Amino acid sequence: MTPASPQRAENEPPAEIDLNPVFVRPGEASQLPRFVMPERQMSPSTAYQIVHDEAMLDGNSRLNLATFVSTWMDDEAQRLYAETADKNMIDKDEYPATAEIEERCWRILADLWHVPDPGNTIGTSTIGSSEACMLGGLALKRLWQERRSAEGAPTGTPNLVMSAGVQVVWEKFCNYWDVEPRYVPVTLDRLVLDGHGLEQYVDENTIGVVAILGQTYTGLYDPVKQISEELDGIQQRTGLDIRIHVDGASGAMVAPFCQPELEWDFGVARVNSISTSGHKYGLVYPGVGWVVWRDREALPESLIFHVSYLGGDMPTLALNFSRPGAQVLLQYYQFLRLGREGYGLVQRNSLEVAQFLSSAIAGLGPFELISRGDTIPVFAWRLKPGHTRNWELYDLADRLRMRGWLVPAYPMPESITDLVVQRIVVRAGLSRDLAGQLLGVIEEEVAFLDSLDAPLPRAARGAGFAH
């Protein structure tokens, strides 16, 4: 007998799932409890159909222009995924071949990012770029602690300097690991961390500076070389030697192929570590991330755990223990499948689509671009001041959602939160043809909104954007 469900709130779903009699097998229940485990078994086909039908209510991932995460891979990749879904990345004794491929992948990235000495570097896969950022930040903190301890100085008040436009993972890092966050404000004149006024934020307790290669709000790059040069000047004046972690969640898999002249990676001497998302512009299904350090000295030995397999030594470092190995194999598949040539073609095509859309949207009367989609394939725009009092970008986002397109509107970071922007992320699944159809929908909805002779009703704004 199923336990009684608690009384549900007005908007909660019913406590039971009513099953379609077409796919229920004879003798199976026609109703199932929603919030407690059923008492009896059911056939795999019935269970599949229930989950399949529920998941069908999700949006169309190809039309989700809010997410950076890959939503398409080719048939061979999907077959490889199905064949390797049972592999556990942490179990290097059981899966030594997968462990070997993991090392190949981060060494490929180390080479891509111009590590000075390929034989004296270290890296790892992670669940995503958030874990990779955490590891990069922890290494900076531990290096700072060890240096301060050697000097006989206190180690209780570390701080980390970053743009107010960082991704929320850096807030989490500072919260979880007892580090004071020091946010450099963004303004309309300075939308990125460019080193200006950096001396006001760093001191002897600064563990490092975070530079973002592809800000989530706008897609813009923090100029890593410029930040490094400012830190060079600070060291000359104060003696403070402060290192940089590059949060390259998106840009670290775009810049090497599309902006090869840009100085941002280990070619900049102050860069201690670089993180990226394999499941963003690394073109792999979620979730996999990567972090690589300049050299072994950049990662304190105290953060490394040593696992022995087949008589060898495999250094491991991660916050998570068991995690999927399939995505690591998918990353290697993409490196082999695409190579530098293929990654360049894919990323340049996305950049071309982004700039096609941004130029067309800039040509529409109501909008001004905040970014153009010429760094990573991401751009944002705002409603021109004084254009209308009858609608705002949240209304356009709602209208586009009704047409199947997810194009978020959201406020900018602290100090310019009164500025609301709308953003498009172009990924490999958005073709020029689909982009043209989206543009037609935007034009239709803007024409509708501009035809209003009174303001749209205002409801409380839900959380429409989570970067």
Automatic annotation (TrEMBL):
<comment type="similarity">
    <text>Belongs to the group II decarboxylase family.</text>
</comment>
<dbReference type="GO" id="GO:0030170">
    <property type="term" value="F:pyridoxal phosphate binding"/>
</dbReference>
<dbReference type="GO" id="GO:0006538">
    <property type="term" value="P:L-glutamate catabolic process"/>
</dbReference>
<dbReference type="InterPro" id="IPR015424">
    <property type="entry name" value="PyrdxlP-dep_Trfase"/>
</dbReference>
<feature type="modified residue" description="N6-(pyridoxal phosphate)lysine">
    <location>
        <position position="280"/>
    </location>
</feature>
<dbReference type="Pfam" id="PF00282">
    <property type="entry name" value="Pyridoxal_deC"/>
</dbReference>
<keyword id="KW-0456">Lyase</keyword>
<dbReference type="InterPro" id="IPR002129">
    <property type="entry name" value="PyrdxlP-dep_de-COase"/>
</dbReference>
<keyword id="KW-0210">Decarboxylase</keyword>
<dbReference type="GO" id="GO:0005829">
    <property type="term" value="C:cytosol"/>
</dbReference>
<keyword id="KW-0663">Pyridoxal phosphate</keyword>
<dbReference type="GO" id="GO:0004058">
    <property type="term" value="F:aromatic-L-amino-acid decarboxylase activity"/>
</dbReference>
<dbReference type="InterPro" id="IPR015421">
    <property type="entry name" value="PyrdxlP-dep_Trfase_major"/>
</dbReference>
<protein>
    <recommendedName>
        <fullName>Glutamate decarboxylase</fullName>
        <ecNumber>4.1.1.15</ecNumber>
    </recommendedName>
</protein>
<dbReference type="GO" id="GO:0004351">
    <property type="term" value="F:glutamate decarboxylase activity"/>
</dbReference>
<dbReference type="InterPro" id="IPR010107">
    <property type="entry name" value="Glutamate_decarboxylase"/>
</dbReference>
